[in-house]
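Troubleshooting entry. Yesterday's outputs looked truncated, so today I'm pasting the complete records for two proteins to confirm everything comes through intact. If either block looks cut off, that's the bug. Protein one:
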Amino acid sequence: MDKKLIFIFCLLFFSTCLKSQEKIKLFYNSDWKITNADKAVYYRDSEYDLNSFKLNGKVYDYSLSGSLLMEGNYLNGKSNGNFTFYYSNGKVRNKGQYEKGRRVGEWEYYYNNGQLKQVILFKSKDINKFSVHEYFSVHEYYNSEGNQLLKNGTGTWINDSIQAGIFDTKSLKTLIGQFRDSLKHGEWKLIRVSDNKLMHCEHFIKGEFKGAEIYDGQGNYYGTTPSEIIHKIPDENIIKLACTEKFELDTTVFPKALLFSDVETIFKTVTGKEYKIQNRKAGYIYGDYSLLEFLATNIRYPVNAFEKKITGKVYVGVVIDSLGNVKDVKLVKGVHKDLDTEAQRIVKLVDKWMPALSDGKAVESMITIPVNFQLLE
């Protein structure tokens, strides 16, 4: 059953409290995990909403020497808005816009001498950001000598920094393909740089995928595939962004258990500064991510609803008093009695809440938790 269903939880908080916004300086190791200054490779100046324990506002990343590496904007914990990434020499590496963690619109990429490399358009579509079918088109492309190989959406495009494949995911590959009127056309070959062996070959006619061949780690023909398998332009920044959004800790410096402390204790431990929250909305004491994990672990899709393929979003209200105790759990908006009952049951299991604060004073309030029951075909 678990392979055919998915639960999606979103948290909507209804309160008159303001956000508790703070400017925070954090140090990171080479894997972009939070560490102390002695072990740091990078540092970040950012704005956090201490209520939701999420990035919210401007973010600047630097090398320890003070060179700016990234500047961008966050909204509710996700990269959202204009971003610019820099080489260590201060030249722009790439710049464009994210929307809820996905590249959208026009992005410009540059070589480390400042020369324009390519202009790419990403379509804003509701797709997985790791999907190989991410829709993009290249408007301009220049090789490292400055020769324009692609103009106005037509010509040869080369991506020389891909680490992907079926039999060999580690080594560096070069992808060579053609665009015609901004549509993929002809053969698209993925070639291993170290020995010039062909790894994959995909075929397109005016943007329509027609088939592909797969080659093994030794470059020998292996078989065919009925769908695209090459992620043609992976986001080189996505691992860093995902790691920092999750607030991952360097466990050689900080214990994992620290993330189960309250937000004030966490930031005091990792920054050495004391932050006093004056205004916040009520919420789970260990933060939104831990609440989602708890709900996903403990919820059960009602058998009757599953068999009848009943889906929908149930809204459950939780009234939390000024001491952080649950005063009431009630159905705000239901879908079906079985789903309604299960949503309320799982929310009632949560027993560690923090009250809302208004000007430093704990107050009673209600949060609403939408529990989305969705089946995957």
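Protein two, checking that the full record survives here as well:
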Amino acid sequence: MGLPRGARTLNTLEKCVRILTLFTETTPVLGVPEICARLALPRSTAYRYISALRAHRFVEEAPDGAGYRLGGRILELAATMARKPLREVALPHMERIARETGETALLCGLREHVGVCLEKVDGTHALRVSYELGETYPLHAGSTGKAILAHLDPAEQDTVIDDVGLPRFTATTITSEGRLKKELAKIRACGYAESEGESIVGTHGIAAPIFSPSGRIMGSIGVSVPHLRAEEKNRERLIRFVVDAAKKITEGLNAQEARES
């Protein structure tokens, strides 16, 4: 008599969890032979479990083909766990941006392969750009999304582009993968992202990346302003506010982890 169905399911789940726990900072990439040896699994069984984990993006092939590594879904779950402290650390800096510039400050994160608005603090200008909490949007169109996309590793960027595509929203939306990759490299080099009406006509966006204590991209903070308030002097001032806020939020997250460890 075989195991009851529930017991078989639990056994499979346990094996999958054990595979995931094999990946560490010192062994970020593992081949099937190593997984088989460490867990005493037949090769066919190991491939079956890895296929299931790949299907749900818990593992993915390493870029050099040397084996497998943890996938994007793990990072998304980690970001979900971190959202509460992220909001708590970010909120005072968002309030300062809104108070001193009059513009609406946005805190954005990653949900699967799209950006999501995690928090906002409305500005004081009568004419302002606003978003709804929980609103999602593609990462390639707009500054907050590009600030996140630019700091995913190349394989993750390709996965996002393959999954979501590069749909056009306005005349300035970037729909060429080559042009987008150049834009992402520029964002990494200068430390912030800008957009000129890429998702909403008549707006200008500025955003900077926020990193977790481990150095992974965690989200972005930004402002989206009517084009008439994006003249060079005000734009440069907004860039300083946003970049400074992102840096201080990242530092705050590091300090929080240090206190809790």
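Both blocks look complete. Sanity check on protein two: The CA atoms of residues 88 and 249 lie 10 Å apart.
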